[in-house]
Design a protein that fits this description.
The protein is of the alpha+beta class and 544 residues long. Helices cover 47% and strands 13% of the residues. It is built from 24 helices and 16 strands. The strands form 4 sheets. The chain has a 5-stranded antiparallel β-sheet, with helices on one face. A hairpin with a 2-residue loop joins strand 1 and strand 2. Helix 3 packs across helix 4, helix 16 runs antiparallel to helix 17 and helix 17 runs antiparallel to helix 18. The longest helix is centred in the C-terminal third of the chain and has 24 residues. The relative contact order is 0.07.
Length: 544
């Protein structure tokens, strides 16, 4: 069992924005961050994350909590599994009550990586291939390039170092087949892959023996998800944040050579196309995204899909296509550094690239084909913001040589995310929010206010009294439409609330036939006295 103090220390180590942004894309919105809720379908963001409060809340479905609750809900993991996952993500060492309890030995990846690096130094074929690609000794060391031997050698290395083979399987180093254990990486140059926080999570491997699969990656594990990782990001992130630019390549060698040439914001996808799951990582630091793709058919199609996705998510940046069989690594090797610099400074913006790609699929000299091009491009434009629709309808019309009024734009994105205020009382909620913002106020408020004074939000106020940390109160804390009063304003609003309560109470008691004359007279006297003092601007203690 994990020690409670260790869990508390981990919580103090976590930042809710940082944690959630590794799973979904967050956008700054005033003091908070917003996103479309991952727990229910919506197209207008109602999911709010507060860095100040270290909580999140969805105003659509009511989901809310802290960093740990989010990961539990999103990853569908148990509480202990979530704690261990977060600890792993942030290189945090947990302490356990039962010291004999075994936890996953992630040192396996680190030791295997060192083993592969040593083998690379002594492998002339692997070294020659890397040197021929123009990679320097410094880059070999920086990117920890290694070499995976024949399968049995990796297995023997694990056994001789007394590593748990089951854990090695779980971490994607080895696997079992019909003939028993085998290594995932056999006679390949290896490229260790790190998480955003600099934790080794897996490997990429390139064959040098003519294997059909030129590149392979670690399988999906608890640590390794290729759709959420970018090769080289842990080395590039500081420059990305500083320069406000990220260059996304297609291969490991492109990244290494670009870094070698001083383009330290280069990263690469892991043998997969850019996906929605990559967007939270790309959004970090709000950089301009430059897609550096090959000019072959697959590269052009991948650039189109990524351009559509990035433009729909309002990313800035553009596309760079390398033609004539060249790639960034080739250009660095050919010392075309200045040319590369100019290319990266002047990419084709995502929207024009996407429109041009759509049109290129059709023979627009043929009217039917032109109509199909117009229809497809129109559908794409309608998925963009209203401003971009208006800006690029002229561009599309010019490209197709048609009248601008034939390009139809949509008003679907004009929906405004409004919280339904019909069944709530703003004044009551603002009082509750002001108490939640400064819980010390509760002691003084309790002398004056009773839960029965809240006509609409009695349950919420009672929750403040009994369970002020309850996640359901996050909807009040994070509701930007509710004001957080200062002490003077809070007293004024309390006066109004209490005055309204006693006035209504006076009327109710006057018509209450269940009370005898003496009881009624006594209550009326108290209430009238309270109302008199409230009129003088004095808050009175609750005495009914």
């Amino acid at each position: 069992m994990i020690k409670k103090e260790s869990i508390e220390n981990l919580k103090n180590h976590l930042d809710v924005v940082d944690v959630i942004s590794q799973f979904i894309e967050l956008k700054k919105s005033g003091a908070n961050f917003k996103a479309c809720c991952p727990f229910h379908g919506e197209s207008t963001p109602s999911f709010v994350v507060s860095p100040a409060k270290q909580i999140y809340h969805c105003f659509g479905c009511g989901a809310g909590g802290d960093s740990i609750k989010f990961v539990m809900e999103y990853e569908k993991t148990t509480y202990p599994e979530t704690i261990e996952k977060l600890a792993s993500m942030y290189n945090f060492t947990l302490d356990y009550e039962n010291t004999t309890e075994k936890k996953q030995d992630i040192r396996i990846l680190e030791e295997v990586n060192k083993y592969y690096q040593k083998l690379f130094v002594n492998n002339s074929v692997a070294k020659e291939y890397i040197k021929d690609r123009g990679i320097s000794d410094f880059s070999i060391e920086k990117f920890e390039i290694g070499y995976a031997p024949v399968s049995i050698d990796t297995i023997n290395f694990l056994k001789s170092n007394h590593f748990n083979l089951t854990e090695a399987i779980e971490l994607g180093v080895i696997d079992t087949g019909t003939n028993g254990l085998y290594s995932r990486f056999i006679e390949r140059i290896t490229f260790p892959i790190y998480s955003i926080n600099g934790k080794l999570v897996g490997f990429g491997g390139r064959t040098i023996t003519g294997h059909n699969a030129k590149y392979v990656n670690s399988p999906q594990t608890k640590l390794f998800n290729k759709s959420r990782l970018l090769y080289g990001y842990h080395l590039a992130k500081e420059k990305i944040y500083k320069n406000k630019q990220i260059i996304v390549c297609e291969g490991y060698l492109d990244v290494i050579m670009l870094h070698q040439a001083g383009f330290n914001t280069a990263v690469a996808t892991l043998g997969t196309a850019l996906t929605l799951e990559h967007l939270p990582l790309l959004r970090r630091g709000e950089p301009k995204v430059v897609l550096a793709y090959d000019g072959d058919k697959a590269g052009l199609a991948a650039a189109f899909k990524a351009s559509v996705m990035l433009s729909q998510s309002d990313f800035e940046g553009g596309v760079v296509i390398f033609s004539d069989g060249q790639d960034p690594a080739d250009m660095v090797k050919g010392k075309k550094i200045e040319e590369l610099n100019n290319i990266f400074l002047n990419p084709i913006p995502f929207i024009p690239y996407a429109i041009d790609y759509i049109i290129s699929k059709y023979d627009i000299n043929e009217p039917n084909q032109k109509q199909k091009a117009l229809n497809e491009a129109n559908d794409y434009l309608k998925s963009l913001s209203l401003l971009n629709q208006d800006e690029y309808k002229r561009y599309l019309a010019q490209k197709l040589n048609v009248r601008e009024n034939l390009v139809k734009i949509s008003s679907d994105r004009q929906r405004i995310n409004e919280v339904n205020l019909s069944k709530i009382d703003i004044a009551e909620l603002c009082i509750i929010k002001s108490i939640l913002e400064k819980p010390k106020r509760l002691d003084s408020v309790l002398d004056i206010v009773d839960a029965s004074m809240f006509e609409f939000h009695r349950n919420e106020f009672e929750l403040v009294l009994t369970d002020i940390e309850n996640p359901s109160l996050n909807s009040i804390i994070l509701n930007e439409k509710l004001e957080n009063y200062d002490d003077e304003r809070l007293n004024q609003e309390l006066l109004t609330l209490v005055y309204k309560f006693y006035t209504n109470k006076l009327t109710a008691i006057s018509y209450d036939k269940s009370l005898d004359f003496k009881q009624k007279a006594n209550l009326i006297r108290k209430i009238k006295d309270n109302i008199y003092q409230l009129k003088q601007g004095k808050l009175v203690s609750y005495n009914l």
